[in-house]
Amino acid sequence: MNPTPAQPIQRIVILGGGSAGWMAAAALSHAFHSKRSIHVVESEAIGTVGVGEATIPQMRAFNHALGLDESEFLRRTQGTFKLGIEFVDWGQRGERYMHTFGGVGRDLGLASFHHFWVRMRNEGKALPLDAYALNSLMGEANRFSREARPVQGDGPGSPVSYAYHFDAGLYAATLRQISEARGVRRTEGKVVRALQRPADGFVTALLMENGEQIEGDLFIDCSGFRGMLIEDTLHTGYEDWTHWLPCDRAVAVPCGSVAPLTPFTRATARTAGWQWRIPLQHRIGNGHVFSSAHISEDEATAQLLANLDGPALADARTLRFRTGKRKKMWHKNVVAMGLASGFLEPLESTSLYLIQSSLSRLIQFFPDTDFHQPDIDEHNAQADEEFERIRDFIILHYHLTRREDSAFWRQVRTMAIPESLSRKVQAFAHAGRLHPAQRDLFSDPSWLQVMVGQGLVPQRNHPLADHLSGAECEFFLQHVGRQLQAIAMKLPDHADYVRNYCTA
Ligand SMILES: Cc1cc2nc3c(=O)[nH]c(=O)nc-3n(C[C@H](O)[C@H](O)[C@H](O)COP(=O)(O)OP(=O)(O)OC[C@H]3O[C@@H](n4cnc5c(N)ncnc54)[C@H](O)[C@@H]3O)c2cc1C
User: Which of 55, 112, 188, 257 has the highest Cβ tally under 10 A?
Assistant: First the structure.
């Protein structure tokens, strides 16, 4: 939109004060140093979803860019450390594996570690893959230190990769404080509709229930699942992925903490979905993500309540969603972020990251005096690709199950999968090859850990792994495993580390 020719896009209006709205306000006020007017509109009566509690390591970069001190942030949000996710009963009932943020083993020459592991595994001489991943070993022993480093070659490798668990409501409050200190304005109240310019449908203002109009040049739709601007106003359309990811509800409830304070999220497969467990300092966040076509809400709630570690601290709350994404994340002068842009179930804790990534893209393509369609198209193409790669990674967990004990698991293990995913799975199954895709958030170690964890072991290893004799290869694996175990066991207990570094 061109308010007048050559005038900069000056007034940014953010509709929504959930995690997305306040992450956007904090990032944009930081990026533009008060050179743009930023206005957040939110309604306490409508409220927020507020269950985004588990993250991936990229969140550290976001906080760092905002100048948010780590221990201060964890103190304010009752946060703990996260080394990865423990998947229980996914491949088969009774099985478990970790998908951690760190690497696996140690590469030798030009060959990746996992080829030596595949070779020994196929000869029955390797431990499960988790035994060679430092984050897994730390997680199993409930140990944590930011200083932990695996051994690489003759010296220490890069520091341990970790993320956080935190209270999303407290995080939004922290970001609000940072944003308001930087001059972001906030209006409390309900928006009844958006006003549009008749000539081209660009949004010109938000009309509040009390008749006030909040004008802007650029509107960021962080209004949650409904997508009040991107969908109700601009009718952008939604790409539905429920045929690949049939879960469409979640019931959430916090419960009291129990020891030990585990430094990982747990995702336990149930009969028609899965249950999350996210340990914070003051409580444990729990939820059951399920397919309403396979289990009733009452039954799903009962399963959740029967599987809590401590007493429930509130009533269970149900959230409904439809997996998929907007056909365009940016349309005219509206950019959708957070739940307004689409939703992928929280199996790999990716939603808050997607907000962060959408903000970097918006800043990269930020309009100067007008909205340049090629920039918008590129922004949307990158966002689509990122969503699709994460979608494939989440589908992988369902596709590779060997469970047959319920209609839900029988459906997901036999359903057709996207071609992009099918190619990846086949390449790995054949000879352990990992084919990285452009803009894939998840790198090789993630795909490796989930594919192997779900029971897919390649038939063959890379020929480079045959250059060692059988005895040398076995010794190499044992040596790496013992070294990593020794490093893990020297670290402090996670609860002690949190107590010393960032007690709330
Ligand atoms: C079950 C579940 C579990 C999740 N777990 C995780 C996780 O572990 N990790 C992770 O990264 N993410 C997770 N997420 C996603 C995460 O919760 C969201 O990405 C995040 O909270 C962002 O939400 P939001 O700000 O887009 O929307 P919301 O929290 O819904 O906020 C919407 C805002 O818009 C305002 N609003 C709406 N309409 C109006 C109106 N008409 N007038 C004025 N204001 C209005 C509301 O008041 C509110 O402030 C999970 C999501 C769900 C559903």
Answer: 55
Q: Give the H or E element holding residue 137.
A: helix 134-140
CA of 53, closest atom in ligand 1: 8
Active site residues: 82
Tell me the per-residue pLDDT of 291-301, one tens digit each, with 9 for 90 and over. Answer: 999 999 999 99
Torsions phi, psi for 194 (to 5 deg) = -100, 145
Phi first, then psi, for residue 127 (nearest 5°) are: -80, 170
Ligand 1: which residue has its CA nearest to atom 38? Answer: 223
> Would you list the domain boundaries of the chain?
11-53+167-240+323-371, 98-160+390-491, 249-320
Inter-CA distances, 285 with 26, 258, 309, 329, Å:
25, 12, 10, 30
**Residue 329 burial (CB count, 10 A):** 29
CB 37, CB 215: distance < 8 Å: no
| Span 315-334, pLDDT tens digits | 999 999 999 999 999 999 99
Which residue's CA lies nearest to atom 33 of ligand 1?
16
Best of 13, 44, 46, 191 for a ligand 1 pocket test (most atoms within 8 Å of beta carbon) = 46
Q: Which residue has the tokens 């960032």?
A: 502
Q: Give φ, ψ of 230 to 5 degrees.
A: -65, -35
**Ligand 1 atom with minimal separation from the 223 CA:** 34
Using CB distances shorter than 6 Å, the residues near ligand 1 are: 16-21, 41-43, 46-55, 168, 190-191, 222-224, 228, 250, 252, 287, 319, 321, 338-340, 346, 349, 351-352
The correct CATH number of 11-53+167-240+323-371 out of 3.50.50.60, 3.50.30.50, 3.40.50.280, 3.10.150.10 is: 3.50.50.60
